[in-house]
From TrEMBL:
<feature type="domain" description="RecA family profile 1">
    <location>
        <begin position="73"/>
        <end position="221"/>
    </location>
</feature>
<keyword id="KW-0346">Stress response</keyword>
<feature type="binding site">
    <location>
        <begin position="102"/>
        <end position="109"/>
    </location>
    <ligand>
        <name>ATP</name>
    </ligand>
</feature>
<dbReference type="Pfam" id="PF13481">
    <property type="entry name" value="AAA_25"/>
</dbReference>
<dbReference type="InterPro" id="IPR003593">
    <property type="entry name" value="AAA+_ATPase"/>
</dbReference>
<dbReference type="InterPro" id="IPR027417">
    <property type="entry name" value="P-loop_NTPase"/>
</dbReference>
<keyword id="KW-0238">DNA-binding</keyword>
<dbReference type="Pfam" id="PF18073">
    <property type="entry name" value="Zn_ribbon_LapB"/>
</dbReference>
<keyword id="KW-0067">ATP-binding</keyword>
<keyword id="KW-0378">Hydrolase</keyword>
<keyword id="KW-0479">Metal-binding</keyword>
<dbReference type="InterPro" id="IPR020588">
    <property type="entry name" value="RecA_ATP-bd"/>
</dbReference>
<comment type="similarity">
    <text>Belongs to the RecA family. RadA subfamily.</text>
</comment>
<comment type="function">
    <text>Plays a role in repairing double-strand DNA breaks, probably involving stabilizing or processing branched DNA or blocked replication forks.</text>
</comment>
<dbReference type="InterPro" id="IPR014721">
    <property type="entry name" value="Ribsml_uS5_D2-typ_fold_subgr"/>
</dbReference>
<protein>
    <recommendedName>
        <fullName>DNA repair protein RadA</fullName>
    </recommendedName>
</protein>
<keyword id="KW-0234">DNA repair</keyword>
Length: 458
């Protein structure tokens, strides 16, 4: 029985289902299931084949006390790029598989080429390109002025041939750019299909675990936001990093979305220039628009990862011609905005039901923490009234469903950052405010309820 086994994978959450259904039973998304081909039934049925599928070992399995298992403290190799190391959790771990996702053109290939060149002197490295020719890669490397010792490249998309070359060369570091171009001979599905991307990535993951080679997989993000088709890959790899940024701005943020070897939500900040990506080790104020006092703008201090960052939240509130006005959040969660507007109505007495509301975080970065709640509402209020907030004002704080303003972690550190950047006034949760009402020359207005905050901003 050499019938091939198939399954259905959700493009949204990566869940696997035995049969097709219109809605994913895991995440509830509609029409996201794609059929994928698994290994042939005969191979799948063989226990030896199944055992070998992960670590390549065919020894019978046995139970072992964990303390007797030989392991190395995650020995880390610096990428030579401090901001990259920070996001990885302190450097690269042997045998780790890291998916780097981002929009086309954001700088994924540039970052990896720079990192590879910087590590290649210490670790033999192989750059596998499925998108650009070798001449293009070499051209870019020389334009960036990168040292090329120890760096080899291969223009190939077939996984079998890539692994064959890798087995000969034995690199300690491999980049596959991009995972969407990879395909394996064992499947008949078209290159770029979910089946192919998934199985090809699985082969590389297996190879990384067997040989201790660290592998970077580059993945383009689709319009829907997932790494093209296979969100599936996120489950297979050790770390998922997203490269974000506004195409109009030269700043780029690398964010750990999943990391088995470090903290998530750690940010690395870079600036794209004519010599490639340059680190921005003190990024605090680069996400301010610099346009000064404008209606609909509120500066906040966010703390993503381990350091504070000043970012500007902008809102545009405008009478809507639609019976169902628009709520659009860029760089923030959409549902959170809808919730905040409901709280604004119920507990702030401010009605935007007949208005379109657009909210944007300046610089193309994404703010995930709830400390953005209060700044978002202050920006909305300011736009609605067409009146800027008082000069040099910052805000942060979570807004609860009953209109209470809740404290956020690291309040003092945020205040300190704002004071350092010359802000004069802060609207913050009561529990985050110093008793004295001032902090390093900054007036700190402590608020307990949304209504107090709105009044303080008026
Ligand atoms: P690239 O790394 O090719 O993006 P990705 O691999 O994510 O698709 O980066 C492409 C963009 O970066 C391209 O629009 C040109 C710009 N760029 C610079 O501005 N300076 C440089 O030194 C390099 C190499 C690229
Ligand atoms: Mg590229």
């Amino acid at each position: 029985a050499s019938k091939t086994r198939t399954a259905f994978v959700c493009g949204e959450c990566g869940a696997e289902h035995g049969k097709w259904q219109g809605q994913c039973g895991e995440c509830g998304a509609w029409n996201t299931l794609t059929q994928i081909v698994l290994e042939s039934a005969a191979a799948a049925a063989s226990p030896a084949a199944r055992r070998s599928s992960w670590a390549g070992k065919v020894d019978p399995p046995k139970v072992t006390a964990l303390k007797d298992v030989l392991h190395r403290e995650d020995a880390r190799t610096s990428t030579g790029i401090g901001e990259f190391d920070r996001v990885l959790g302190g450097g690269l771990v042997e045998g780790a598989v890291i998916l780097i996702g981002g929009d086309p053109g954001i700088g994924k290939s540039t970052l990896l080429l720079q990192a590879l060149a910087s590590m290649a002197g210490r670790l033999p490295a192989l750059y596998v390109t499925g998108e650009e020719s070798l001449a293009q890669v070499a051209g870019r490397a020389s334009r960036l002025g990168l040292p090329l010792d120890g760096l080899s490249a291969l223009a190939e998309t077939g996984v079998e041939r890539i692994l064959e070359q890798a087995s000969q060369m034995q690199p300690k570091l491999l980049v596959a750019d991009s995972v969407q171009t990879l395909w394996t001979e064992s499947l008949t599905a078209a290159p770029g299909s979910v089946s192919q991307v998934r199985e090809s990535a699985a082969r590389l993951v297996r190879y990384a675990k067997e040989t201790g080679t660290a592998i970077f997989l580059v993945g383009h993000v689709t319009k829907e936001g997932g790494i093209a088709g296979p969100r599936v890959l996120e489950h297979m790899v050790d770390a998922v990093l997203y490269f974000e940024g506004d195409s109009g701005s030269r700043f780029r943020v690398l964010r750990a979305f999943k990391n088995r070897f470090g903290a998530v939500n750690e940010l690395g900040v870079f600036a794209m220039g004519d010599k490639g990506l340059r680190e921005v080790p003190n990024p605090s104020a680069i996400f301010l628009s610099g346009s000064g006092r404008q209606p609909g703008s509120c500066v906040m201090v966010t703390r993503e990862g381990t350091r504070p960052l000043m970012v500007e939240v902008q809102a545009l509130v405008d009478a809507s011609p639609l019976s169902n006005p628009r709520r659009v959040a860029v760089g923030l969660e959409q549902n959170r905005l809808a919730m905040l507007l409901a709280v604004l109505h119920r507990h702030g007495g401010i009605m935007v039901g007949d208005q379109d509301v657009f909210v944007n975080v300046v610089g193309g970065i994404r703010v995930q923490e709830t400390a953005a709640d209060l700044p978002v509402l202050l920006a909305v209020l300011s736009s609605l009234r067409d009146r800027p907030l008082a000069d040099k004002t910052i805000a942060f704080g979570e807004v609860g469903l009953s209109g209470e303003i809740r404290p956020v972690p690291n309040g003092e550190e945020r205040l300190k950052e704002a004071a350092t950047h010359g802000f004069k006034r802060a609207i913050v949760p009561k529990a985050n405010a110093p008793k004295a009402g001032t902090y390093k020359g900054m007036d700190v207005i402590a608020v307990e309820r949304l209504a107090d905050a709105l009044e303080a901003a008026a």
